[in-house]
Amino acid sequence: MDLREKAAELRRYLDYHAHRYYVLDSPEVSDSEYDAKFRELVELEAANPGLQTPDSPTLKVGGPPVDGFVSHRHLVPMLSLDNAFGEDELRAFDERVRKGLGVETVAYNAELKFDGASLSLTYEDGLLVRATTRGDGTSGEVVTENARTVRGIPLRLRGDVPGVLEVRGEVVMFKDVFEDLNRIRLERGDQAFANPRNAAAGGLRQLDSRLTAARRLSFFCYGTGAGPRLADTHSGLLARLQELGFPVRQEAQRLEGADALVDRVAHLQTLRADLPFGIDGVVIKVDSLDQQDDLGFTARGPRWAIAYKFPAEQAFTKLVQIGCQVGRTGTITPVAELEPVFVGGVTVTRATLHNYEDLKRRNVREGDTVIIQRAGDVIPEVVGAVLDKRPADSPEPSEPTACPECGTPPVRLPGEVALKCPNRACPAQVSAKLRHFVGRNSMDIEGLGEKLIDRFLEAGFLQDIPSIYRLRLRREELEKLDKLGEQSVANLLASIEASKNRPLDRFLNALGIRFVGDRSSKDIARHFRTLEAFRTAHYEDLMALPDVGARTASEIESWLEDPLNQQLIQDLIDLGVSPVEADAPVGDLYAGQIVVFTGKLEQMTREEAEDLVIRHGGRPAGSVSKNTSLVVAGPGAGSKLVKAEQLGVRVITEDEFLATIPG
Ligand code: IVH
């Protein structure tokens, strides 16, 4: 084969597999196989410069820097959208549209509103010739070399579209890439990116396209500008764009009427935290392109589309003070006390600063204006400070030299970043341990909440975990405590009694051993069956369990080797705590299978469903991968269901799942 043919074959191979990976989300070869072919083409072209074509995938790694960007006028302007906040504004939009068209109901297309930077791609006779940022909407900067490096942007269309076609979409940075790049930036002492959107927008505007390539950006397509009409509806257009080789998200859906829109928007909001990239809302477009033409534009933007906005996940506020908090294992965490700020749908007054090293790296001080982030149900965190607004005399934060709760000098274990209070009797630690012990997924002692624990600690009724089971000896004293009364003491003591016979996995979880959570405690309980067997477990025994890795195994082993912990278990046994044996497997129906539940279950809780799988020899998991054996999907199932379908994993309903279980 001559070299030209060889190069063409490699290009075809690389294009085909990049398309499978970025557009169809269903790769056929491993990353390393792809990389090997890629290097082969790079070397071939380097040795024979005449062989590189304008659509060669090797252009996707970037090239030498340019002096500046040229401005280019979009053939069709890039408009922005009106926003809708909340259901009422969404319904008002539908009403305007219906009135404008003079019809009863309208079909829409609802798609994700990607949180990135918009980009317009111009193809001439199928070849990418120009990429332009949005700019002021009329003209933007030409960033073609940079755009070539973005994953999912085809350098040549996979189909014939003669003449000019402008394709529009959003350049985003995936959350994992963002985390990874920020980790590296902080390690190097660089300022972290505030959010994936800034990192993506900044990435597109690098003068050196190799720096853009290093940001590992991705592209999702949502429409067209100038060019031939490719379909009659927006849904049809998206399907056609996908055929032409553009990544189109499958969440986009055609829906009729305002009720369907309201439901869909609420559902997409529940998917937000689980998506691998950021979205800040849902874009709703009239589906028929003729109807779009009828409605036309205002000076601001189209009458046929609206952006339904989710609550912002980031906000600015003032950091009043850096306090600290002592956790269950004695870890002292710096905490930001904030001027109240509304973010992610709630008012936030405190946010975590992770640890003192992180605080230093993020360069945050008291008095700073800071960026607060709250994504999904995650604890609010301080992302960083706005350095321009820093007061001139603000002091650098320092680590505490004494535990704020008990005054003991803190220590730092070798190889760990966390600062710890070594005093096991530290009231803050004891209180946090007790709270965990009585929690719903642990011993589930109803009525013993945070406030009561602290009152009991203060009054000397509680000192440690075993003292919970000695409370019954002090019934009269408890009844005299302010506002408690006979009945509530009786209820409390009854739930303490009831907790003595919780299942073993709950008990193991309650012990608060590091890295042992809900899932691994189930796994451990099922394996060891009894508390006695667990007490003498060794590293090798633990490593045999599928959900237990080396880190957890050695943590458990050293926990069990500590005489104080063995004493704790013994004290609890002596006080009558007797965890019930883990449910023995009743069958091997699901032996060796990994089962994922997604969406709403209507006949049982997720926990009950997972227990069923476990008791029949299988293993529940939280996410879908190619190792998943089965997905049980209920109403409202989203990204996991999509992934299962893409990977060809078997999907059944809750009813079908229950029908498989004997008895
Ligand atoms: S359509 C004329 N669809 O949101 C309609 N825009 O305020 C033009 N965006 O700058 C936009 N996801 O960059 C559309 N699925 C989506 C989008 C989307 C994100 C961005 C876009 C634009 C802004 C509109």
What this model shows, in words?
- The longest helix is centred in the first third of the chain and has 20 residues, at 3-22.
- The strands form five sheets. Strands 12, 13, 14, 15, 16, 17 and 18 form a seven-stranded antiparallel sheet that branches.
- α3 runs antiparallel to α9 (257-271), α12 (427-438) packs across α13 (450-459) and α16 packs across α17.
- 37% of the residues lie in helices and 19% in strands.
- It has 24 helices and 22 strands.
- The chain has 663 residues and is α+β, with helices and mostly antiparallel strands.
- The protein starts with a helix and ends with a helix.
- The chain is globular, with a radius of gyration of 29 Å.
- 2-(butylsulfanyl)adenosine (IVH) is lined by residues 79-81, 111-114, 118, 134, 170, 222-223, 283, 301-302, 305, 307.
